[in-house]
Amino acid sequence: MGKNRAPSSWLKSAADDCSASSAAGESKNGTLKRGKSRPKTMAELADKHQLYHQAVQKPRKEVKNLDTIYRTLSARYLDHLAKPGHKARNRPAQRRSRATSDDRCSQDDGSSSVFGGHRRHALSMREDFCGTAVLCAEWVRTSPSPERRAYGVDIDKSVIDYAHENTLGQSHHGASISARTRLICADVMDVRGVDNEEVEEEDGLVLPKVDIIASLNYAMCYFHQRRDLVRYLRHSLRNLNDFGLLFCDIFGGVEATRSGISNIRDLGTFKYYFNQHSYDLARNTVRFSLGFKMSDGSVLRNCFSYEFRVYSICELKEAMLEAGFDDVSVWINSRKEDTADDDSGRGSDNENTGALAENGCSKSSSDVEEGSDQDDGDSEDEDGGIRSSQGDFVAFTELTSRIEMPYAFNAYVVGVKLPCHDADA
Hints:
Elements: H1 14-23, H2 42-45, H3 48-56, H4 59-81, H5 103-106, H6 112-115, E1 124-128, H7 134-141, E2 149-154, H8 157-168, H9 175-179, E3 181-185, E4 192-194, E5 206-208, E6 210-215, H10 226-238, E7 240-252, E8 261-266, E9 270-280, E10 285-294, E11 299-309, H11 313-323, E12 327-335, E13 355-358, E14 361-362, H12 365-368, E15 395-398, E16 408-417
Parallel strand pairs: 1-2, 1-6, 2-3, 4-5, 6-7, 13-15
Antiparallel strand pairs: 7-16, 8-9, 9-10, 10-11, 12-15, 12-16, 13-14
Helix pairs in contact: 4-7, 10-11
């Protein structure tokens, strides 16, 4: 047969492409013509998870951001709590569950002897809705310490199996990453966090409490009902160590409420398509899909499809406080409306592709993580300026004052659990 061509419409789905491939060598009566089979297209051979990873995810930058924000907030809160004479903030009764007789809370007067033992850096991270667990693998890779551990939870067995075989199994760090990473196929609401000494390996739904829970890739937007969101946030609080952080990312801005947005990004060997189909004002939800077009013209259309609830920063902050978090910190990066020649496209995974900035003071990526691996291998300056329709994020700034609604933004909304506070059971 002649050269492989794209289907008559690139909107043809991946499933249809596979069907066409299997039937390409058949005669009119349905029998296979001898010697008429054609080679598979690049789309048929492609690993959709790998395409997604290359187009959307930036795990090295993400881990740097998690580490940096944790160090920043731990220094701020724990140093304040350690001051002589400090008294714990009074909280509503329904958000206080630990008995007043708790030894650690009652000793001395709130001096450094109470809080001095808390680390200023995170060692353990749990990735809820982890998918292929690239963040888990990167979290462990960034430090050789045996205490640097990651846990991933996802209800989809196919992606957990993929993560075991590919993300962990084929890592060039091999056994070191696998030994310090544990993945569970389960509903995140069924997984219970306990103190390390209480963990029993045979109980598949029990994990140690962690320093950080990362619920990224816009995971909170899957909760269309606020009551379900608050229930998850309360559950997360119970699964954190004393001084623990819950990281959630959200997107928003004027662009998030528009329909019919389509963007294409050329990544060399393939093109990445982002399509924002519709926005529902009554339900405050948006539908969009991601697809890929290969260099031979073959297409994976609607490879990933989503319907997200568009939460505002204020809504998510209020839900975290209602769930029992002691405080909420917001880190934002925003941009103005696209220029006419902008061909970027937003992915469903948060592209936190740059360094953090605190209080408006930008820092380079070499500043945000002391001793970190400087050779990212995916530098934004070298990859053709990988962008998002939500912005080419050079830095995140802590939101501490009033801000006008930008055209588009991405943000970390970080729930803070201070020592001696647990959510209600």
